[in-house]
Amino acid sequence: MAKEEEKKEAPPAATESPSGGGGGKLGVILTIVNLLLTLGIGAVVFVQFKKDKNSEKVADIQPSEEEHGGGGGHGEAKADAHGGGHGEAKAEGGGHGDAHGAPAKPKETVVSLEQFTVNLSTAVGATPKFARVVIAVEVPNEETSRELTQKMPQVRNSIIDLFNSKRPADLQTGEGRNFLKEEIRNALNSFLITGKIKAIFFSNFSVSG
């Protein structure tokens, strides 16, 4: 009876050994799977990390490219400022040259002389006649006006000599007075240097005696 019980108990011991070996294999498999999962997660993390680093490098490069691009824009600004802008300045300079080529007409000046009371030419024994007149002289610029003022003694002497040479009848007509104006203009222009007199005007003109 004892041997039969031993034989009966033996098989269960034999059946336990396979289950124990299967459990060991399962543990190895689970360990390998965990290791693979860990490696896979690590690989994913590493790839993501590399992507992040590359994106940071691109982000670092892009501002410098924009700065270089800005430098190109600055170069264009320089080209516009120094090339086009300077060209436009030259064009304006040409206009300024035109202004020099055709200068604006200087403002004319009228100089009023003091009143003249001058003896006219009369026959011997005739009643003396004289002319009383205010003369205005038109000059081309201020410089000629100053010269005329500085040479006033010569101006008055020339005018008096011309009136002294005229008879009263010579000044009774507009034609005669205009001829006298032309004579005065020519006489004064003969010694003026800075400019020429353009016109002579008479005012308060009268002949009496």
Outline of this structure?
Helix content is 66%, strand content 13%. By secondary structure, the chain is α+β, with helices and mostly antiparallel strands.
Describe the fold and architecture.
The protein is an alpha+beta fold and 209 residues long. 66% of the residues lie in helices and 13% in strands. It has two domains: 104 residues; 100 residues, Tetrahydropterin Synthase, Chain A, CATH 3.30.479.30. The longest helix is centred in the first third of the chain and has 100 residues.
The geometry reads as rod-shaped
Q: Give the class from helix and strand content and strand pairing.
A: alpha+beta
State the helix count.
4
Number of domains: 2
Q: Which series of helices and strands comes N to C?
A: HEEEHHHE
- Strand proportion: 5-15%
Q: Summarize the biggest pleated sheet.
A: 4 strands, antiparallel
CA(first)-CA(last) distance:
196 Å
Q: In terms of per-residue confidence, which ranges show pLDDT below 50 for 5 or more consecutive residues?
A: 1-10, 12-20, 63-99
